[in-house]
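Dig into what follows:

_____
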Amino acid sequence: MTTAVGTARPAAIPRPTWRWVQIAVAVATLAFLVWRVGTGPFVDGLRAVDAWALAAASGLAVVTTVCCAWRWRLVARGLGVDLPLGTAVAAYYRSLFLNLTLPGGVVGDVHRGVSHGHDTSDVGRGLRGVVWERVAGQVVQVLLTVAVLLVLPSPVHAVVPLAAIGLLALVAGVVLAVRMRAWPAIALASALVVAGHAATFLIAARSAGVTAPTSEMLPLALLVLQAAALPNVGGWGPREGVTAWAFAAAGLGASVGVATAVVYGVMVFVASLPGAVVLVAAEVRVPTRLEEVPDV
C-alpha cells in the first residue's frame, strides 16, 4: 500500500514522482527475478493454476471481502457515517479489482473513500474512514505475523523479538489515538481476513508443488502478505521478490517461491473479478438514471 492507506510517501517527494518511483521499484524487482531465476518459474506458476485453486480462492475471497466490508462499516460508524453492509461489500469488491489492475495498489481504496464521501456529502470523512479501516487491518495483520514468527521458525526468527517490542508500543499508541469501542469486532474481522489470505497462499503453494508442512509454510505466507502491502504494479513486484527470498532462505528454492507467487497472483486476480461486474454495473446505471430525469 502506498500514500493513501499504507506505506507513507516521503514528504519531500512530489506525488507524481513518488508514483513513478513505486512503479520503477516493482518493475525492477520483477526484472531482477527474471535475471536470477529466468522465465521458467513464471511459466510454471501459470501452468500450475487449476480450476480447483481458482474456485477455492474465489470462495475464500467472498469471506474475506465480507469481513473487510464489515470492518469498514464499523470504522465508518465510529466516524458517525452510515454504511449498509451490502453497499460496503460491493464497493470493496470494486476497490480490490481496481487495486489489482492499476499501478500503485491503492487506486481502488481512494476511489472507495471518495465515492462513499460523495454519497454522504463528506469526502474528507469518507477518505478518513478508508484510511483507518486499512490501518486497522494492517495493525492486526502485523500483530498476527509477529506472533506466528515468534512461535514458529522462519528466515527472520532472530530479529522478531526486537520488532515485537517496538510493534507493541506502536499498537498501543494507535489504539489510544483512535479509542474506538468497536476495536474487538474490528480485530476479529481483520483476523479472519488474514486467515483467509494465508489459506489462499497455502493453496497456491500446494498448487505449485510445495510439500512442506503447514507449520513451515505459515510464517512464509504471513511474510509474503506483509510484502503485498508494499508499493506494487497490479499486486506484482515486492510480493514475488519476498516470496523468492523467503522460500530460498527456508530451503525450498527461489524458483519454487516465484512459481507460488505467480499462482497466488492469478488466484487473487480471478477472485477479484466480481469487482469488475460491480464497476461495469455502476457505469451502466449512471446513464440510466440520467435518462429517467424529467425535462423541466
In short: The chain is about 75% helix and 0% strand. Residues 286 and 292 are 10 Å apart (CA to CA). Residues 1-8, 288-296 have pLDDT under 50 and may be disordered. Residues 17-64+134-273 form one domain.
